Amino acid sequence: MAPDTVSLRYFLVLAEELNFTRAAARIGIAQPALSARIRRLEKELGSALLVRDTRSVALTTAGAALAETAPPALAALDRAWDTARRAGGGEVGTLRVGYSISTGAETVPALVDKLMYSGPGLEVSAVPMATPEISPAVADGRIDAGVTRGEQPGRGVRRYLLRRARIGVQLAQHHPLAEHLEIEIAAATAYPLRLPDRAANPVVHDQLAALFRDVRPQPRFQTPTVSFDMSQRDLRDGLTLAPAGEAAATAPPPGITWRPLHGAPGLTVHLVLPHEQSSLHRRVRAVAKTVANEMNWLSE
């Protein structure tokens, strides 16, 4: 039978003081209550822990052994209790985050850093995924959370707005339009426009294409041979433009810049969590809200 840990802690104080009056005062209880606790502990153990007389208190052999071995056992119990409490609060464990490559330039690194900083016992594993696969993976539990550009369809998940971002274009620094702080949509359509394959993110592809739907002449859309070519070689000709969110302005390749499109609606980035949420999911939501506020991601 496991001992009463409160009585055990009281005994350790008494073992240090070897005086019931001082030990009771240190603990903050009455001396008779302390004596009752020690008698109960001795009964549970089936052995005397103390030798008492009118003048002194001394440890028995069993008492000395318990005084030596109990502190590390209680410390281990405290650690186990704290670990369980933190796990129940979403502070420890493994968090699997799936994210679209387009959110990996700034949004996901900032969120992951904040999550890891918020709980030293929380292990975060972030994996790039095709955007259409993220919501289903969250719904069936293959990953714990997702970050997508655009409000992606899917059942069994909840979506939380994480970031609003302006739409603009990537272009060569020597491109004539790069001289403008903002580029008119009609001016951009005078050049070939690169859009990723629609299968990579139908929601955002259609949103970007819709920007130019009513512009004349109709734009010339191109699909790059190599998706997500970080060197942006197809823009270096100084002619082609690539519609993109403002995250593209973060650490662009040499010779490439980004300019916002005047009057264009914004893109959105969403945190995706399962419909039924644990304390870990609620913690992710709270951290995401904090980082969004700190980074000013939701400002108009």
UniProtKB/TrEMBL annotation:
Pfam families: HTH_1 (PF00126), LysR_substrate (PF03466). Residues 3-60 form the HTH lysR-type domain. Keywords: DNA-binding, Transcription, Transcription regulation. Belongs to the LysR transcriptional regulatory family. This is LysR family transcriptional regulator. It comes from Streptomyces alfalfae.
